[in-house]
Amino acid sequence: MWQVRETIRELAPDLAAPAVVKNGMLLGRHVPWAVMALPNHTPHDNHFDLAFSTRLDRAGEGLIEDCVSGFGEPREALGVALDIWKQTSGACFLEMAAGGSGEFAGHFDEDDPAGLPGWHTLISEVVAYGPDEPSATAVQDAMLGHLLLRTIAPQLLPALDREQNNGVKVFLCVTPDSLTAEVRVNGEVAEAATAAMAALPWPTVTDAAFARFYAVAVHRT
Fold it and tell me: CA-to-CA distance for 122 and 110, rounded, in angstroms?
Protein backbone atom coordinates (compact mmCIF):
# COMPACT_ATOMS: atom_id res chain seq x y z
CA MET A 1 0.00 0.00 0.00
CA TRP A 2 2.95 2.35 0.36
CA GLN A 3 3.45 2.11 -3.40
CA VAL A 4 -0.24 2.92 -3.94
CA ARG A 5 0.10 5.94 -1.68
CA GLU A 6 3.05 7.22 -3.70
CA THR A 7 1.14 6.64 -6.93
CA ILE A 8 -1.77 8.70 -5.61
CA ARG A 9 0.62 11.35 -4.34
CA GLU A 10 1.88 11.92 -7.90
CA LEU A 11 -1.57 13.05 -9.01
CA ALA A 12 -3.32 14.25 -5.85
CA PRO A 13 -0.75 15.16 -3.19
CA ASP A 14 -3.31 16.80 -0.91
CA LEU A 15 -5.35 13.61 -0.87
CA ALA A 16 -2.38 11.32 -0.23
CA ALA A 17 -0.51 13.40 2.34
CA PRO A 18 -2.75 12.71 5.36
CA ALA A 19 -3.54 9.11 4.37
CA VAL A 20 -2.32 6.26 6.55
CA VAL A 21 -1.48 2.62 5.86
CA LYS A 22 -3.17 0.33 8.35
CA ASN A 23 -4.02 -3.38 8.25
CA GLY A 24 -3.04 -3.65 4.60
CA MET A 25 -5.21 -0.71 3.55
CA LEU A 26 -4.55 2.88 2.58
CA LEU A 27 -7.05 4.95 4.56
CA GLY A 28 -8.05 8.56 4.22
CA ARG A 29 -7.61 10.45 7.48
CA HIS A 30 -10.88 12.04 8.65
CA VAL A 31 -12.53 11.13 5.32
CA PRO A 32 -14.23 7.79 4.56
CA TRP A 33 -12.13 6.39 1.72
CA ALA A 34 -9.81 3.42 1.39
CA VAL A 35 -7.76 1.56 -1.22
CA MET A 36 -6.88 -2.05 -0.52
CA ALA A 37 -5.34 -5.16 -2.03
CA LEU A 38 -7.58 -8.18 -2.50
CA PRO A 39 -6.47 -11.82 -2.80
CA ASN A 40 -4.97 -12.54 -6.20
CA HIS A 41 -7.58 -14.59 -8.08
CA THR A 42 -4.94 -15.95 -10.50
CA PRO A 43 -1.77 -18.05 -10.03
CA HIS A 44 0.38 -15.28 -11.53
CA ASP A 45 2.68 -13.11 -9.41
CA ASN A 46 2.37 -10.20 -11.84
CA HIS A 47 -1.40 -9.91 -11.33
CA PHE A 48 -2.83 -7.56 -8.71
CA ASP A 49 -6.39 -7.26 -7.40
CA LEU A 50 -7.25 -3.84 -5.97
CA ALA A 51 -10.42 -2.28 -4.62
CA PHE A 52 -11.52 1.05 -3.27
CA SER A 53 -14.39 2.72 -1.49
CA THR A 54 -15.14 6.38 -0.95
CA ARG A 55 -18.10 5.65 1.31
CA LEU A 56 -16.76 3.61 4.21
CA ASP A 57 -19.20 5.45 6.46
CA ARG A 58 -22.16 3.73 4.78
CA ALA A 59 -22.93 0.26 6.08
CA GLY A 60 -23.17 -2.37 3.38
CA GLU A 61 -21.58 -0.24 0.69
CA GLY A 62 -19.80 -2.55 -1.76
CA LEU A 63 -16.20 -2.20 -2.86
CA ILE A 64 -15.31 -1.03 -6.35
CA GLU A 65 -12.98 -3.75 -7.64
CA ASP A 66 -10.39 -4.02 -10.39
CA CYS A 67 -7.55 -6.34 -11.35
CA VAL A 68 -4.44 -5.41 -13.32
CA SER A 69 -1.47 -7.34 -14.67
CA GLY A 70 2.04 -5.95 -15.01
CA PHE A 71 5.09 -7.18 -16.89
CA GLY A 72 8.55 -8.30 -15.80
CA GLU A 73 9.92 -9.21 -12.40
CA PRO A 74 7.60 -8.70 -9.39
CA ARG A 75 8.79 -5.18 -8.50
CA GLU A 76 8.72 -4.04 -12.13
CA ALA A 77 5.34 -5.70 -12.67
CA LEU A 78 3.88 -3.85 -9.68
CA GLY A 79 5.11 -0.54 -11.07
CA VAL A 80 3.56 -1.24 -14.47
CA ALA A 81 0.29 -2.37 -12.90
CA LEU A 82 0.05 0.75 -10.73
CA ASP A 83 0.74 2.95 -13.75
CA ILE A 84 -2.19 1.29 -15.55
CA TRP A 85 -4.35 1.44 -12.42
CA LYS A 86 -3.83 5.17 -11.89
CA GLN A 87 -5.06 5.85 -15.42
CA THR A 88 -8.14 3.62 -15.18
CA SER A 89 -9.85 2.53 -11.95
CA GLY A 90 -7.43 4.66 -9.96
CA ALA A 91 -8.54 7.68 -11.98
CA CYS A 92 -12.16 6.91 -11.08
CA PHE A 93 -11.16 6.60 -7.42
CA LEU A 94 -9.43 9.98 -7.52
CA GLU A 95 -12.43 11.57 -9.21
CA MET A 96 -14.76 10.23 -6.53
CA ALA A 97 -12.45 10.98 -3.60
CA ALA A 98 -11.18 14.39 -4.67
CA GLY A 99 -14.32 16.30 -5.46
CA GLY A 100 -15.79 15.17 -8.76
CA SER A 101 -14.68 18.14 -10.86
CA GLY A 102 -13.77 16.07 -13.92
CA GLU A 103 -10.03 16.44 -13.37
CA PHE A 104 -9.29 12.71 -13.23
CA ALA A 105 -12.15 10.96 -15.06
CA GLY A 106 -14.95 12.07 -17.35
CA HIS A 107 -18.59 12.47 -16.31
CA PHE A 108 -21.14 11.14 -18.80
CA ASP A 109 -24.91 11.39 -18.61
CA GLU A 110 -27.23 8.91 -20.26
CA ASP A 111 -27.73 11.05 -23.38
CA ASP A 112 -24.00 11.25 -24.12
CA PRO A 113 -23.03 8.91 -26.98
CA ALA A 114 -20.18 7.50 -24.89
CA GLY A 115 -22.31 7.12 -21.78
CA LEU A 116 -24.42 4.31 -20.36
CA PRO A 117 -28.20 4.57 -20.89
CA GLY A 118 -30.04 5.28 -17.66
CA TRP A 119 -26.93 6.09 -15.62
CA HIS A 120 -24.59 8.88 -14.69
CA THR A 121 -21.20 7.30 -15.34
CA LEU A 122 -17.57 8.08 -14.62
CA ILE A 123 -15.26 6.84 -17.36
CA SER A 124 -11.46 6.81 -17.40
CA GLU A 125 -9.36 7.29 -20.46
CA VAL A 126 -8.73 4.30 -22.71
CA VAL A 127 -5.19 3.10 -22.00
CA ALA A 128 -3.39 1.13 -24.72
CA TYR A 129 -0.02 -0.60 -24.49
CA GLY A 130 2.07 -3.32 -26.05
CA PRO A 131 5.39 -3.87 -27.83
CA ASP A 132 4.17 -2.41 -31.15
CA GLU A 133 2.89 1.14 -30.77
CA PRO A 134 0.91 1.26 -34.07
CA SER A 135 -0.93 -1.93 -33.09
CA ALA A 136 -1.76 -0.59 -29.63
CA THR A 137 -2.94 2.71 -31.11
CA ALA A 138 -5.16 0.91 -33.62
CA VAL A 139 -6.85 -1.10 -30.86
CA GLN A 140 -7.24 2.04 -28.73
CA ASP A 141 -8.83 3.93 -31.62
CA ALA A 142 -11.21 1.06 -32.29
CA MET A 143 -12.26 0.87 -28.64
CA LEU A 144 -12.96 4.60 -28.61
CA GLY A 145 -14.76 4.44 -31.92
CA HIS A 146 -17.07 1.65 -30.80
CA LEU A 147 -18.54 3.85 -28.00
CA LEU A 148 -18.31 0.62 -26.11
CA LEU A 149 -20.52 1.12 -23.07
CA ARG A 150 -23.47 2.22 -25.18
CA THR A 151 -22.83 -0.45 -27.80
CA ILE A 152 -22.87 -3.33 -25.31
CA ALA A 153 -25.46 -1.73 -23.01
CA PRO A 154 -28.17 -4.34 -23.74
CA GLN A 155 -25.85 -7.02 -22.37
CA LEU A 156 -24.15 -4.88 -19.70
CA LEU A 157 -27.09 -3.20 -17.98
CA PRO A 158 -28.58 -6.43 -16.53
CA ALA A 159 -25.24 -7.10 -14.79
CA LEU A 160 -25.36 -3.83 -12.82
CA ASP A 161 -26.59 -5.28 -9.53
CA ARG A 162 -26.23 -2.20 -7.32
CA GLU A 163 -28.32 0.94 -7.16
CA GLN A 164 -25.13 3.00 -6.96
CA ASN A 165 -21.43 2.70 -7.75
CA ASN A 166 -21.16 -0.32 -10.03
CA GLY A 167 -17.52 -0.79 -11.05
CA VAL A 168 -17.03 -1.84 -14.68
CA LYS A 169 -13.67 -3.10 -15.95
CA VAL A 170 -13.20 -3.34 -19.73
CA PHE A 171 -10.12 -5.15 -21.06
CA LEU A 172 -9.04 -6.31 -24.51
CA CYS A 173 -5.96 -8.14 -25.80
CA VAL A 174 -5.58 -8.57 -29.55
CA THR A 175 -2.75 -10.62 -31.09
CA PRO A 176 -2.16 -11.57 -34.74
CA ASP A 177 -4.08 -14.82 -34.19
CA SER A 178 -6.27 -14.37 -31.09
CA LEU A 179 -8.55 -12.03 -29.19
CA THR A 180 -9.27 -11.95 -25.47
CA ALA A 181 -12.05 -9.72 -24.17
CA GLU A 182 -13.20 -9.26 -20.60
CA VAL A 183 -15.89 -7.16 -19.00
CA ARG A 184 -16.19 -7.40 -15.23
CA VAL A 185 -18.90 -5.82 -13.10
CA ASN A 186 -18.23 -5.48 -9.39
CA GLY A 187 -15.39 -7.96 -9.69
CA GLU A 188 -17.33 -10.68 -11.54
CA VAL A 189 -17.08 -11.52 -15.23
CA ALA A 190 -20.15 -10.30 -17.13
CA GLU A 191 -20.38 -13.11 -19.66
CA ALA A 192 -22.97 -11.59 -22.01
CA ALA A 193 -21.24 -8.20 -22.10
CA THR A 194 -17.88 -9.88 -22.67
CA ALA A 195 -19.26 -11.88 -25.59
CA ALA A 196 -20.85 -8.78 -27.11
CA MET A 197 -17.55 -6.92 -26.90
CA ALA A 198 -15.60 -9.81 -28.41
CA ALA A 199 -18.03 -9.95 -31.35
CA LEU A 200 -17.29 -6.37 -32.43
CA PRO A 201 -14.87 -5.76 -35.31
CA TRP A 202 -11.30 -5.23 -34.08
CA PRO A 203 -8.22 -4.30 -36.12
CA THR A 204 -5.57 -6.67 -37.36
CA VAL A 205 -2.32 -6.22 -35.43
CA THR A 206 1.29 -7.23 -35.95
CA ASP A 207 2.00 -7.89 -32.25
CA ALA A 208 0.08 -8.20 -29.01
CA ALA A 209 -1.88 -5.04 -28.22
CA PHE A 210 -3.78 -4.30 -25.02
CA ALA A 211 -6.45 -1.71 -24.29
CA ARG A 212 -8.54 -1.11 -21.22
CA PHE A 213 -10.60 1.43 -19.36
CA TYR A 214 -12.68 1.60 -16.21
CA ALA A 215 -16.10 3.03 -15.54
CA VAL A 216 -18.29 3.53 -12.50
CA ALA A 217 -22.04 3.59 -13.03
CA VAL A 218 -22.57 6.05 -10.20
CA HIS A 219 -26.35 6.42 -10.01
CA ARG A 220 -29.45 6.09 -12.11
CA THR A 221 -30.77 9.12 -13.96
Answer: 11
